[in-house]
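Hi P.,

Sorry for the delay on this. The queue was packed all week, but I finally got your sequence through. Input first:
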Amino acid sequence: MPDFQNELYPHLKKYFGFDSFRDQQEEIVTSVLNKKDCLVIMPTGGGKSICFQLPSLLLKGTTLVISPLIALMKDQVDGLKANGIPAAFFNSSQSAEEQHKILESTHQGELKLLYVAPESLQGLSPILKEEFISCVAVDEAHCISSWGHDFRPSYQQLGFLKSTLPLTPIIALTATADKATREDIMAQLKIPRAKQFLASFDRKNIALEVRPAHDRVSQILQFIKQRPNESGIIYCLSRKSTETLVAKFLDNGIKAAAYHAGLDFESRNKVQEDFIFDKTQIVCATIAFGMGIDKSNVRWVIHYNMPKNIEGYYQEIGRSGRDGLPAQALLFHSYGDVIQLQRFASGATNEEVQLAKLDRMKQFSEASTCRRKILLSYFGEFLGEDCGNCDVCKNPPQFFDGTIIAQKILSTIARLKELEATGIVIDVLRGAQNAAVLDKNYQEIKTYGIGKDISWNDWQHYAIQLINQGFCEIAFHKNNVLQLTPYSKDVLFGKTRVLLSKPLKKEERVALEKEQKTKKVAKNSLFERLRLLRFQISLEENIPAYLVFNDATLKEMEAERPTSEEELMQINGVGQRKLEVYGEEFIQEIRAFQAEKKAKKKKKSHTYQDTYELYKEGKSIEEIAQLRKLKPTTIFSHLAKLYSDGKDVAIYEFVDKETIGKVAQAKKELKDPEALKPYYEYFEEKLEYSTIRLALSVIEKERIL
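Then the structure:
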């Protein structure tokens, strides 16, 4: 058997642009090269593809890749070709002539990778021989198992591959599979002795957040507006929801499209391609969308509805941040979704399993402890410390004695004779005068209006907590009415103390959003300029932008600023072919940016100097402003900067010591002391911006605090 070890790293750099392997990649690649069967469980974005794509370059023959969806294959093949790797796909959308040409290329050993859907395998029978096929990779392998979250019967025919190609290694890969699913995959593929590789499920770069589902559309619009130009996916349970959301987005000038099973193949394919090519910013989709898409610059995933299990949730959020840069996963949770998902599971052959998994998903959504710990523990992985990158860690719930609030809710449920759902209970507490309340004379109930001082949404927040703690329950089989439990009596009679968490107020939510949001990209930053260059190249070559270079590679270029081929080759994601094809354009753009920045800096230093010279001539602020055709406030900012830089400026002519002291005190108290507006608001708009800026320059220089 040939020794491939010396060729691994040169091939890794040349074709994929990486200097080193991640996690277990090298061991997996070596196992495949040694003709060993493997089962690889690796999170989305963890680098599964390299585990079979790199060996394909070193093994004689073609690696056959089983992929679940025809629409995804072109994306995969385009990515390989962009890296200089000969690849093709084989499916029913091709003509007989095209298919014959692919078979001939495989026969001649010209292809390194060939993608095929399970349904099209029969058409490959002439080449399903060990002299032509070097390896079989089964992607999205969880689809083979009825225990998995995305079972596809067409995958169950794949067991014949091991019988047909007994000496050919089979590598099965998926992002999510529990123990039962893993065992089922190996049994059905007839690879019982396959070595299992379980990578960490911890995607540290994805910030996790769960919110109550009220006013979802407004929350989502606000979320998107804070993230201009970022690609994202929104998952919904129904086709109607996807279309309703898209209509809202289009009304707000946001490029979006719906993707669901009700669309024909051509329409779905166009939505997918426009998203991959960055022509559409957002896709609102049912769960089928996104599987196998290698689009690395998806920055966020929103679940408009709660997923039916943690595996599906984990796989879907994993479609964001594949490049390792910060990403957001936002989930909206409602009991209506729970009820709908319970109905979906009802009558299924594995109903008990589906309901148990739904219950775990519900527990995750309602958690008041680190969400990542819960997520990882589901897959058998222990996280010692809280993650610090979920909403619970960033804003731990504040608990208080909520016994009286609990008694008000439970008493109202009892007085309504346990016949009404949460909404009516809250309406009664708040003294609502709608038909649903007045027609049944609920205004006569003793607890009517006793909760006017608490908002509707806050009452809902408290009611959900009481349900979670078991003090009341939803009777799903009785139109979702709220009922008491055996534990309710102890609360009503003061024997049990109830702790509730305070709801997150709007201003706190905005602050949390600000903290979680990565810094917005400046319009003329080097990253933005490289991103636009990448987009132009992608249009010219008709390939997705991220196949030129992904966001992480552009970010590294921005940080390192390579201006020669040798320096550019040191950047992760820049391989030999991409250096040859795109290198010069990116180097020229970086050089141009550097030159412009240098010129701008020189010009800026001149403008300060011009102000300083006029000031030293004894000109007043108004005279300098008039001569320089600038505003007086700008001249004051120049003087503040000149003073900070050590120039001879009589600063106390423009700001007195008492004012400096007040600004210094404000700096201690303000949450954001770097910006000027908080100071302006702190002084109730009575202190001019120019005075604040001058005072801060003194504080900074003389370290007054």
